[in-house]
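User: Show me a protein chain along with its predicted structure.
Assistant: Here is one chain, sequence first, then structure tokens.
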Amino acid sequence: MSDDAPGMTSIASWTADQVRAIAPGSGGVAPLIRDGDFKRVSPELDVWDAWPVQTADGEPANVGEGITLWMALAAPHRRDPEERHGLARIHLFQRDSQGWRHLGQALPEGFSPGSREWSGSAVLAENGRELTLYFTATGQRGETELTFTQRLFSARATLEQGDRNYRLVDWRDLAEVVSLNPAWYMASDAGTPGVGTIKAFRDPAYFRDPHAGGDYLFFAGSLAGSPSSFNGVIGAAVSAGPAKTWTLLPPILSADGLNNELERPHAIMHGGLYYLFWSTQSHVFNPQSSIGPTGLYGMVSDHIDSDWRPLNGTGLVFANPPEAPRQAYSWLVLPDRSVISFVDDWGQGDGALPRRFGASFAPILKLRLDGDEAALDL
């Protein structure tokens, strides 16, 4: 990276003391999801982590009269929802005044280098036709037993409109964005395959800095050299030039000793400040430390490369309601402060069986951001 290229200069910490300050009932609480608040896109398809086909400034790209396109992880329905992670593929969806419509798999069969695809982001060029997808390739293509190596890839495609549907064609330029640096990030296959214990090098989220310049990919990682098995971090890669050569940076935010997974990190700019958000679940906090609720968390800074401060003093933006603590997950904040997520284990208490998996897009929420404070705009 050249001397004048943008980059992160210091690592922030999300600490047990900050999480301990989350008093019972404090912070925002998402509305309870009830019957009639959502519907499945397809009875045969389970849908979860979602992101828009966006413009470079982060807004969902308007591809037609009130039409936006989205990508989400999806898999054929299974009785056990956890099986979906081993079957995950990226699918394309259309959103308009009629709601959500499934358009099929985004990537063609045999194109991805992994055995399955996990979350990412997608950027549509100004011409409205050339699309770049950043995604997680998990495992190895053709493997007979699932492995958990995660690699960050990019690929390009052309967006076309057919008689009835939009489609992505001519997939090309598949390339690994950056390689894991073992001095900074633990190997993504170093954990165990159990839920909440998998290590991370995944979820690349694109952000163009409108103030200082430069393009960033934020991602979920695991800290190298940590004595704790709860060593989640947010990492970043930066590209300062038009050639889109990415340079891996050290972690920018660490929850070492506190939390194992800071999932789907992403950034927006609002009111001249940078906001960095992530999702996490109560069961991936260190039980010997402080445990926060499943929810959306975030930090704020005047500079993209330093001085990140926890929103609301604790990092918690809002949590699921206590009567349904797992009702939604994987929140994504858009530049207009709307928040999308998926319906998880909804409408019941934690641990109730059988699990009631929503497997579809959750009702959209809205945030209020005012300096170091964030709250739901209900």
